Amino acid sequence: MQLIDKVKINEKSVLETFQEEIPSIYFSDKTEKEYKKFKENFEYMYRYLFKFPPDMFRDKNLIDFGAGTGEGTVCYANWGAKCTLVEMNNLAQKISKNIFQKYTDNFNQHRFIHSSIFDYESPETQETYDIVHCRGVLSHTADKKGAFSKISNFLKPGGYLIFGDPNKIGGFQNMLQRYIVYSLGKNRNHMEEICETLFHDDITRSVKSRAIRTRRSIIFDRWIIEQQDDPSVEEVLSWFQKNNLRFYSSHP
Description:
With 252 residues, the chain is of the alpha/beta class. The protein has helices at residues 3-20, 32-49, 73-78, 90-103, 144-152, 172-184, 188-198, 200-208, 215-224, 233-242, and strands spanning 61-65, 82-87, 111-114, 129-135, 155-164. It has 10 helices and 5 strands, in the order ααβαβαββαβααααα. It has a 5-stranded parallel β-sheet with strand order 3-2-1-4-5. β1 (61-65), α3 (73-78) and β2 form a beta-alpha-beta unit. The protein is globular and about 50 Å long.
């Protein structure tokens, strides 16, 4: 089977899973208080952990690949960035449009493009961005190295690429857990029951953390999603080198 066929088959399975339970909903189904909490935690993470203070986003053109429901992207918009959200899940993108309408005062300055990373074509020839963002996405593709090169092509000289995925070593335990769930589970409902039985305390801790997500969204995102190929640190650094990018910072 050719790589392009594997990519398409994988995209279909990931889309089906994440349309059943969208993993990027943090506050849009909750209260203004929950949004305020999320926003404060988000700014802390970027300012103090990633070393990307909000001022870096002011008056910048930003593209977010795999933007999901836009619940992180709207923070960049409110820090002054003009955002392009690329997302293949139309259900998630509908939520992102509602969020931008509610939490920004310049909705028409942002673009929402329904596309996968591999199918995305710039609306304008040779269009590039000050900031390219892609977090928690490439490990769900069948060609993460190719996807990294694709998104790197949209970065301006002197710009920043903000990339994040679980680390292969750090995620080893989770991969073993997924193997158990897939080995024992007869269907998705059964797999959910297994996760609740085996990882109940872990899920509870996640619900109580900064993530503010439901138990089911955590289960789908960590154990039921079919494709999860976490990169190693060595792999990521080799991608940086291949695409002529200089490493700036990381967390952890």
